[in-house]
Amino acid sequence: MQKKQNNYAFIDSQNVNLAIRALEWRLDFKRFRVHLRETYGVSKAFLFIGYIEGNNDLYVSLQEAGFICIFKPTLEYKDGTTKGNCDAELVLQAMMEYPNYDKAVIVTGDGDFYCLAKYLIEREKLEALLIPDKSRFSALLRFKIFRPHLRFMNDLREKLAYKKERPRKDGTL
User: Fold this and answer.
1) Would the pLDDT of 60 be above 60?
2) H or E stretch including 120?
3) Quick one: DSSP state of residue 6?
């Protein structure tokens, strides 16, 4: 009998959100959480996200889908943009949890995670580096050391895209 996997996912939500939107689709986070569990044996999925007042329904739905949300306060700039970079939090959480998981799944295309991914590979603790957009991700993550671990979300659009439920002919959902 095979031992049940105990892998953790560390998700850069801003990178995922921007990349998927640029591909002109929306990610169904509930389906994504199931995919992480079924494909990579992810028992805990940490989602790093900037906290914006008024988005509480979103945060509740993410938690109900099975994500552990790690919030960072955001800053609103004079030009109206909001910034809540969570890179340091993701790296710190991955290292704090290091003894608790078998392998990690890092979900981002951001080269700022080069050192974390390399460290995990060197210790045989990286299950996958899941890139939101295979045509647009950091050159730092294209090095030979990462190639066996690269997976891409582009190919998962049909499986993971948010689809509005349409009423049946009788008017019910």
Assistant:
1) yes
2) helix 114-122
3) -
